[in-house]
Amino acid sequence: MLINVDTAKELPTVLSLCSGFCGIERGLDLAGFKHRTVAYVEIEAYAIANLANKMEAGELLPSCIWSNLKTLPVEPFRDRVDLITGGYPCQPFSAAGKRLGEDDPRHLWPHIRRHIESIRPVRVFFENVEGHISLGLREVISDLESLGYKTAWGIFSAREVGAPHQRKRVYILADSNSVRCDRGQLPHRDSERPVEIEAQQRPQQSVVRSEVEGRGRKTRKSHWEIESRLGRVVDGCADRVDRIRLLGNGVVPQTAAKAWITLNKILESTQDD
């Protein structure tokens, strides 16, 4: 497969790992960080079909999709990627699972670390569950710092950007202070405005009529109008189950945007330390 990274020289280049429905990359858009995703790495068939469908519909720029993070060829990306993003699997750290950590076969951090070391991006931006704090996060921070990155991390929730659910997540931003940072410069102050506006929005309330034992009853149901849209994809998929799985594993873009802006400010404030 031919992978051409040079076509995106005019914008900071992004390599998206464990892409899902591109929640992190959409968050970068909301934060005012213009970029070009040069490749997606995703193993779930439904998520891959969704990405391909968005490209065909013109909602995403055409990029290659690689299905196995462990076998990703790094040569085309070495010294050509400004930012690596990823919401790597949470199952090794989640309180909802067995919390096997590095013993979980879905533990992908060692492979991501290897790719970072080989590709040498200017920055990395990752997301995971809150349980990562007590299991695995110290290893991630230690590995990034051993590779020469200055790191910042924090907990951000969907509720604080207007969602009707909590969904706390850990975000990690690391910067190498590379000479290529001018291609991945921070958002200007005015680029923070879209996120601030959306954070002030409250869930839209609508009246839904349901029939209970032959009598009409009005109930109130919350709708968060700024949830990401997922279009239909290939025929034959277990549509509802796959959609729920994709959304459940996905990143809330507005939360990613807030995390990006906040953690960038933290790194800026410690540049001279």
General description of the model:
There is one protein chain. By secondary structure, this protein is an alpha/beta fold. It contains seven helices and nine strands, in the order βαβαββαβαββαββαα. 28% of the residues lie in helices and 21% in strands. The strands form two sheets. It has a seven-stranded mixed sheet with strand order 3-2-1-4-5-7-6, with helices on both faces. A two-stranded antiparallel ribbon has the order 8-9. α1 (23-30) packs across α7. It is globular.
Secondary structure blueprint with pairings:
Layout: E1 13-17, H1 23-30, E2 36-41, H2 45-56, E3 64-66, E4 83-86, H3 109-119, E5 123-129, H4 137-146, E6 150-156, E7 169-175, H5 193-200, E8 204-212, E9 215-223, H6 239-249, H7 253-269
Parallel strand pairs: 1-2, 1-4, 2-3, 4-5
Antiparallel strand pairs: 5-7, 6-7, 8-9
Helix pairs in contact: 1-7
Which features characterize this protein?
seven-stranded mixed β-sheet; alpha/beta; two-stranded antiparallel sheet; Rossmann fold; 273 residues
Q: Report the order of strands and helices.
A: EHEHEEHEHEEHEEHH
Name the CATH superfamily assignment. Vaccinia Virus protein VP39
Count of individual domains? 1
Number of strands: 9
Question: Which class best fits the helix and strand makeup?
Answer: alpha/beta
Q: Main sheet, how many strands, which sense, barrel?
A: 7 strands, mixed
In short:
This protein has helices at residues 23-30, 45-56, 109-119, 137-146, 193-200, 239-249, 253-269; strands at 13-17, 36-41, 64-66, 83-86, 123-129, 150-156, 169-175, 204-212, 215-223.
